[in-house]
Specification:
With 301 residues, this protein is α+β, with helices and mostly antiparallel strands. The chain is 32% helix and 27% strand. The chain has 9 helices and 16 strands. The protein has a 5-stranded antiparallel sheet, sandwiched between helices. A 4-stranded parallel sheet has the order 2-1-6-7, sandwiched between helices. A 4-stranded antiparallel sheet has the order 8-11-9-10, with helices on one face. The two termini are 27 Å apart. Bound molecules: adenosine-5'-diphosphate.
Length: 301
C-alpha cells in the first residue's frame, strides 16, 4: 500500500516507529508535514500539494496531528479522505475528540463512567458550581492545558473559589472535577487499536504529587487491567469513533472512570513500558480496513 503519515516531524519517536512498521510490512510510506500541505478545494477533483508537487492518492493516511494544529490538520486529513484515502482515524472523530466538552458530553450520554465534571463560562455563583460536583477537594483544569500543566488540586472550598475566580478572571476555559483520591496519584493509559486494548500501562505520580504525567516526573509500568477497564476503554474509543485511541482511566471505588480519549496517542511511553510493537498493530489495522472511500463520513461531518 501507499501510506502517508501526517506528522510535523520525521524524527519524533511515534512517527519513526510508524515509518519502520510500514516499511517492515512492505508498504511505501511518506511523512507529510500538514502545515506545508496546501489544497485545491474548488475544483471537482480534490488535490493536495506538498513542496510544489501534487501528492498521489494514498491508500491510507495515518494522522498524527498535534493539538495546536487541529484546525488545519483536520482540514488536510479531510482533503485526503475526499481523495479516497482510508484514514486511520477520521477527521470528524479527531475534531470531536479535541473538544473536551463535546467528548465528555458524548461519553456521558452513552453511559461511560467519568468523574463528576462541571463546565462553566462565567457563573455568577462559583460556590454552587463547586457544590454541583460534590465540593472540595476538587480538581480544576484549564481546557487548553496539556501534560498536567493547568491541572490544580484545590483541597478546600476557599482554595477552590479563589483558583476558580483567578482562572475566570483570565477568561480561561475551565472544568471542575471531582477529585478521585483513591486513584492514589495513578492513572491507566489503555491503547485501543481496532476495538481491542493492545497495551496498557500504569502511570504513577511522584510522592506528594497527584498528577501522574511522565512530564511531571511520573513513572510508567506495565499493568494487568480488569475486564471492566478493558470494556470501558474499548467503549470510549468506539463512542468517539476512533480506530486508534489512548484512553486514560482512573481507578475509583465505583469502577473505571474515563479522564480523556486521545486521538494521537504517543507510542514511546507505552511501547517502552510494555515491550509491545504497537506500531505494527496499527499498520495491521490499516491493512485490514483500508479500501478506497472506506470512511463513515467521507469528511462530510
Ligand atoms: P493533561 O491532559 O494535561 O495530562 P489530565 O486531565 O490528564 O491533564 O490530568 C493530569 C493528571 O492529573 C492525570 O494523569 C491524573 O493522574 C491526575 N488527575 C486528573 N484528574 C483527576 C481527578 N479528577 N482525580 C484524581 N486525579 C486526577
Amino acid at each position: 500500500m501507499n501510506i502517508a503519515i501526517l506528522s510535523r516531524n520525521k524524527k519524533l519517536y511515534s512517527t519513526r516507529r510508524l515509518v519502520e512498521a510500514c516499511e517492515q510490512r512492505g508498504h511505501e510510506v511518506m511523512v507529510i508535514d500538514v502545515l506545508r500541505t496546501y489544497m485545491d478545494i474548488a475544483s471537482s477533483k480534490p488535490q493536495a500539494h506538498f513542496k510544489g508537487e501534487a501528492l498521489p492518492t494514498f491508500d491510507a493516511v495515518i494522522p498524527r496531528i498535534g493539538a495546536s494544529v487541529t484546525f488545519y490538520g483536520t482540514a488536510v486529513l479531510r482533503q485526503f479522505e475526499m481523495m479516497g484515502a482510508y484514514p486511520l482515524n477520521e477527521s470528524v472523530a479527531i475534531s470531536r475528540s479535541r473538544d473536551k466538552l463535546r467528548s465528555m458530553q458524548l461519553l456521558s450520554r452513552r453511559g461511560v463512567g467519568m468523574p463528576n465534571t462541571g463546565f462553566a463560562n462565567n457563573p455568577d455563583d462559583i460556590s454552587d458550581l463547586i457544590k454541583m460536583v460534590g465540593g472540595a477537594p476538587l480538581v480544576i483544569k484549564l481546557l487548553e492545558g496539556t501534560q498536567g500543566i493547568g491541572v490544580v488540586l484545590a483541597e478546600t472550598q476557599k482554595a477552590a473559589e479563589s483558583v476558580l475566580e483567578a482562572f475566570m478572571g483570565l477568561k480561561a476555559n475551565i472544568m471542575v472535577q471531582e477529585y478521585i483520591k483513591e486513584a492514589g496519584g495513578a492513572d491507566i493509559r489503555c491503547l485501543v487499536v481496532d476495538g481491542k486494548v493492545v497495551a496498557a500501562m500504569k502511570r504513577q505520580a511522584m510522592p506528594g504529587e497527584f498528577r501522574s504525567n511522565l512530564h511531571r516526573g511520573g513513572s510508567a509500568s506495565i499493568i494487568k487491567i480488569t475486564p471492566a477497564e478493558r470494556a470501558t476503554a474499548v467503549n470510549a474509543a468506539k463512542v468517539m469513533g476512533l480506530n486508534v485511541a489512548g484512553v486514560d482511566l482512573l481507578r475509583s471505588e465505583r469502577g473505571p472512570l474515563v479522564m480523556e480519549v486521545n486521538s494521537s496517542p504517543g507510542l514511546e511511553g507505552i511501547e517502552t513500558a510494555t515491550g509491545k510493537d504497537v506500531a505494527s498493530m496499527i499498520v495491521q489495522c490499516i491493512e485490514k480496513h483500508a479500501r478506497p472511500h472506506n470512511t463513515r463520513t467521507r469528511g462530510k461531518g
